[in-house]
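**User:** Once you have settled down, spend some time on the protein underneath, comparing sequence with structure tokens, and judge whether sequence predicts the tokens.
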Amino acid sequence: MAGHNKWSKVKHKKGAADAAKSKTWTKNIREITVAAKMGGVDPDSNARLRKALDDARAANITKDTIQRALQRASGPSEGADFEDLTYEGYGPGGVAILIQCLTDNRNRTSGEIRSAFNKNNGNMGSTGSVSFGFKKKGRFYFEKSDKVNADLLMTAGIEAGLDDISEEEDVIIVSCEPDAFMPLKDAFEAAGLIAESSEIEMVPDAYIAISGDQAKSFLKLVDILEDLDDVQKVWSNEDIPEEELNANNWD
């Protein structure tokens, strides 16, 4: 895979999230509310909620704000009308794109996503047109240091469900099955190994190389999609030269 490009994108997107905290907080709170509504307010028995709470704390969302979201989830209607939807399509250069949404109005959401594709050299696809080329995986990204190396990660994680470790120039990427994500996170943290970024991702089976105008158009499309209130995550299989990622703003 284009690991160095993936890590560059992770770092750029983290910076963009810091620059747009209010929108990030809104999406995190929505995820907490929906996760709690669907699986209960106890994070020990609700892995989705626990991940949402971890993300909220990482984004420095206050305890009071988190508690209010949990209280709303206990109400008779809050969060009940939201549904998980995934939209699929192709961006510039034929890049495959998956868009995960939480929405209370699928007509609005599909219209906004279709418009984003149409205006940015993309095409919205039918269900299954793109998703067959992705697999759901847990991913942990560790920056290499004197205290973090592949051997330590392997030792800490092998009994907790670690599947694979790959190394790039400055990062170690650990993969696992989705069900092993939280146990593996616990194992790493117990060993004092804290990931720079971790997520349950849709990982592509193959990547498509794009550059120049196609890369710029693709990055613009992703920015627009991620800025939509109903969009939680955007996954894709582009391979863009790192210097072009570095030259583009993600905010």
